[in-house]
Amino acid sequence: MDIGILAEAYYLPPSKKKVQDILDAENIPFGTFAKNVDFRRDIGIEEVHVTDEMPSEVAVKTAKNVISKSGISGSEIDLIIDFTSLPQDYIGPTWSAAGLVQEAIGADRAFCTALTVGGCASYHFAMRSALALMRSDEKINTVLLVAGDRTPDLNKTYYPITVASDGGGALILKKGCDRAVILGIETISIGRLHDVWYVPGLGRKKPDEEASETLIHMYCNMKKFNEGVIIRNFFMFRKVINKLLSRIGMTMDDIDYFVYPTFSTWDQKYFCEALNIPREKVSTEGLRHRGHVQESDMVINYARAVEDGAIKKGDIVMVVSNGAGFAWSAVVVRH
Amino acid sequence: MTDKKSVSSSAVGIVAMACCFPEKILPISEICLQEGIDPDFILENELDIGQVRVFEGEWRSDPAVAAAKECLSRAGLKPTDIDVIVDFSVLPQDYVVPAWSMSNKIQYDIGAEHAFNIGFGGGGVTNLLAAFKFVSALIKADDGVRTALLIASDVSIPRNRVINPDQPMTILGDGASALIVSDSADVLEILETEISSDSSRHDVFNIPGGGLAHPDRIDLYRVKIDPLKYSVSSSFDALKQLSRKAADLAGISLDEVNHFIGPNISGKDQSRFAELFHLSDADPFGKNRRQYGHVQATDLVINLSDFLEMQAGRKREFGLVCSHGWGHSSGAMLIK
After folding, report:
1. Whose CB has fewer CB within 10 Å in chain A, the N or C terminal residue?
2. Which residue among B160, B187, B214 closes a domain?
3. Domain boundary residue, one of B139, B167, B187
4. Which residue in chain A is spatially nearest to B221 when comparing CA positions?
5. Model-level pTM?
């Protein structure tokens, strides 16, 4: 039986902040760092969404949006997977926002859990796990995947990658749904790069160090990032895409549209060039006024492309991402 | 991956298990001294835990690496035979989860280069049962998965072993465990796994400090169980219901289940568990609780290993692996 995406929705807090102000406040360096790229000059993000809400509140609003859009009730949901990738209200894996989401939408029959891996690719890991359960368990028919992120005040820049926006994304997977039917999904993990990006937390506080919010800031091991991620990033994209296309008997020419994270102008440019994809076939419009919403980029960019008519009924769409940890992932759907 | 043309009907089961406990032993008297608790209070609250193991290294994931390697060795498998690694840890890890995940580190440390890595959190001990449910599904319905490695490492926050010092509910020990699940197991077959969540108790077992709600409150960076949200009767009622459901789905009656395996929370918790399932041997794994304390879902693995030893040479019987998850996330897995 086909499994499709019944609906996808997002929540972006109404408040925005200018990226140049963020870069100033966070002391992001001036000048070029690679191939004549200047982070401050070339990032391509002018503003991002910001909020004081807890990540769980963002997730709850997002979940309510997708429930409303899908036309189903919370009690129809059998499984909730929280695929948030940034630190939440409370420490994981002890706690996740899934329970709060369950309560808020009245999903009283659902089992809820959190997918605790994958960075921005957690979208695909959550989907792959959900699909397996839906295919093998006749009692699991409707699944909610939801994420909600809020970055700490002075930790919005993930230098040298992107500037993060607060927000959330959610989708409903349903058996027998003929919209956005999932044709195949693929994920690859490279565990050697597990600590390229990390949040130290109070558990890593040194004895003479003061407990402060900086301990839940995201940090980058630049040497490992340059030597481990940059040199293989597009090789890994090709690998995961080719593996998926080969298995479902398609080629790149069959893909009508690519949904891709909104990191930066240079990243979008390299992605199109490295994979020989025309720019108009890739979701890039959200970059300027939104920036990067972690794992929710995939949901938001898909939803926006549908709203804008870039994705039409019957189109073959590939949603592709990488994620800290590190992972590369792709899913193909027939919209 | 991914999607198999049809869902496999092959039996999925546990091929091997291993636990790793640190060498250092801390008697309860010493823990009470460190945490300022009257030892008589531990006795009064019927915890029946005599000592715990204590990890003193830098990286909390280290015991899981050792457990994973031992598990592979027991299974006679190579690291490259593993298709997916699933983390079911409960307590804080090397870095903050979900921004970081131990399963990625384990993949690297053991050389499981063909695996992809996932993990499930937010469910306490029931994380293990959630992991079993998803792994069984992946093996049955995902072309890329035949063999899974499940891992957890749980190391207590310093001076946070006695949970709820005013009314102690358990004492946390450190340790790690690993299991290999595949479609070629011939010893412990997983028949059904049922899980449910009660959202009103989402924070019954929680660490209030260190997340975005209280990022700099080191005083709140402690595991606590909310006594107002933990209801013994509703937790155990939910567990009984799930157990019946798992048995029904497998086409047997709960009366046909010979062995009940739960976590090593306390003597008092075990008494309720024994009463719930009318156990003839009220405390079959009491020695594990007394020597290791409560090591989250690793309790289930060490008890399951003992169960397997007890079964050696006997005809196949049914066992139920259970967790009430303090009433938030409950699970029951029927095995043969």
Report:
1. N
2. B187
3. B187
4. A202
5. 0.97
